Structure formats: C-alpha cells, structure tokens
Amino acid sequence: MRKLLAATxxxxxxxxxxxxxxETRSFFAMDTAMRLRIWGGDAALADExxxxxxQLEALLSVTAEDSEIARLNRAGRCELSDDTAALLRFAxxxxxxxxxxxxxxxxxxxxxxxxxTGAYRVPDADELNALLALVxxxxxxxxxxxxxxxxxxxxxxxxxxxxxxxxxLAALLRGRGIAAALLDLGGNIYCLGGKEDGSDWRVGVRxxxxxxxxxxxxxxxxxxxxxxxxxxxxxxxxxTRYSHIFDPATGRPVDNDLLSVTVVGESGxxxxxxxxxxxxxxxxxxxxxxxxxxxxxAVLMRRDEVFVVSASLRDAFAPAGAFAxxxxxxxx
Length: 332
Ligand code: ADP
Ligand code: MG
What we know:
Elements: H1 2-18, E1 22-29, E2 32-39, H2 43-60, H3 68-75, E3 77-79, H4 82-97, H5 107-112, H6 125-132, E4 141-143, E5 146-148, H7 161-175, E6 180-185, E7 188-193, E8 201-206, E9 213-219, E10 222-227, E11 233-235, E12 241-243, E13 246-247, E14 252-253, E15 258-265, H8 268-290, E16 296-302, E17 306-310, E18 317-319, E19 327-331
Parallel strand pairs: 17-19
Antiparallel strand pairs: 1-2, 2-6, 3-5, 4-5, 6-7, 7-10, 8-9, 9-18, 10-15, 11-12, 13-14, 15-16, 16-17
Helix pairs in contact: 2-7, 4-8, 7-8
The protein binds adenosine-5'-diphosphate (ADP) and magnesium ion (MG).
C-alpha cells in the first residue's frame, strides 16, 4: 500500500513538473470583461497584473470623476503621471501619423452621440459643427508632464488604453521570467511566448457578422487587436446603426467598406491606435497605409467579402469555416 502511494505521488509530481501551473484572473475593467491566463507564475503575480490594469484605469478613465484625464478635461490643465503623459504623447504622435484619423480630442462629439453616457441620440448638423470646432489633437499642449487643452476641448485615451495596458502586463510578466501567457483585455489580445508544447498561439478573429470566428492567426509574442463598428453601437428608431468609432473629419460614426480591422504587432498600443484609425480610413486608405509597414501586419475585412491581409501574415493567417469562400488580397 505504501509503495503504491509513493508511486502515485511520484507520478503526480512528474505531471506537475511537466505542465506549469496556470493562474487565471477574470475581472471587469476599462468598461470591458478581461481574462488573464498566466503559466508558471504564482497567485501574487496574477494579482499584481490585475492591480496594474486597475491602476491604469484609475489614471486614464474618461468617465471616472477622479482620473487624470477627467481632471484635465474639467480644469483644462493637469500635471500627468508618467503613464498618462507617455500614452498621451504616443496618441498625439499617432494622430500625426494617421493624418488625424486617430484624434484624442474627439470626446465632446462621442459624448454628444451618447457613447459613455448611454443617452444615445443623433445630434443635428449645427450641434455637430459646434462640437467639431473643439476637435483637433494638434491643439493639445504637452510639455513634459504638463498637459493643457483649449477651452471646451476634452481628451479621451479610450482608443489606445487597452493596448497600452497589454504592453505593460507583457513587460511585467517577461521581467518575472514568464514564458507563456494569454492576455485578453476585452478582445484586445496579447499572446506572450508560445504554447507550453512549443507551438504558436492560435488567436481567433471575431466574426463581425455573427457568432464565432472568421479567421485564425497563429502567432507568438504579439498583440492582436480588432476594431469594428459591430462591437459597440446603438440603433436609432429608423433602424440605422451608429458605431462607437467616429470619423474626426465629420463627427459622425464610421460607416464605410470595412467590417473590421485586426492589427498584429509587438506593440499593443500601436496595434490599438491603428485598429481604430484604419477603421476610420476605409479600405483604400488603410491598404495604402499598410503597404510597406514593417512594425505591424493587419487583416482588413472588406464588406465585399474580401480579406485584405499584410503579406507578413501569409504564414499566420487562415480563414475559418464559411469564410474560406471569401477572397484574399495580399498587401506587400
Ligand atoms: P474598443 O474600445 O471597443 O476596443 P477602439 O480601440 O477602436 O475600440 O476605441 C474606440 C473608442 O475610442 C470609442 O469608444 C471612442 O471613445 C474613441 N474613439 C472613437 N473614434 C475615435 C477616433 N477616430 N480617434 C480617437 N478615439 C476615437
Ligand atoms: Mg483602438
């Protein structure tokens, strides 16, 4: 009996040594459901990751009373922490690089349509024009940690916050020697390392037309971030759907030839910024933008049932199920 017990124990220990223990955390932050899966770390490390996301949310939330962004928007100026200053600097640069498709000062417009407040409505042209006069990322002044806005303007880092948070978690985990983690920040995915058996992570791209996935990406050490009008929207009385991604040129929700945009790269912040901006650009401008890009790859889903995919993702990309019938065009 003793021998049997010892043998069983031995077997169990072998299994434990082979497969790293998994720590999982599911929680709600940044207005979305998050799930972290970390292999080879302990409970304290997983808790630290959750706390880091909550700390970033407390700094960046546009709706919280007391965040740095809320204070900046209320007072027109604010001394920012390193995190907020770095992310604002990055988002302003991305405004420049995307020709204003990403604009962190869009918030007065987004709010007028009822996003973040829940009081959805369609503002008339006069109201929109008055609000659009407040929208211009170039008017944000950021001198070191001191930020200021013109009267009435408001900043919102919601288009890049989750991507930035995923980078911060990946850096924290790598610094602690973690070799495998799957971070899902509300559909903004960061896959760290590869699977335990040495194979790539397989990340599904959400089907914007229904349930399940439309494609799978085989990757390691990459952020995978999708934006699309299907994620959050409201429906007006006449049945028109208005999405939460806005064109800063018109102040209106994006409604173009793209169903969704998925951006893949080493920087989650960059992927997040670009997934939003490429949605705004539409297929033609987005395709031109992606040509020759080395830092990111992307999967554009065009309404005419074509995947437009960066050639750098040729080995990683596979359409799923019925989407195998879609066309594929490659961007070199
Ligand atoms: P999600 O937060 O659903 O993952 P995104 O990363 O695409 O989606 O960010 C969308 C959010 O960013 C919106 O909820 C809105 O607050 C803000 N936003 C919408 N359009 C723009 C834009 N063109 N530039 C900057 N921020 C935007
Ligand atoms: Mg984004």
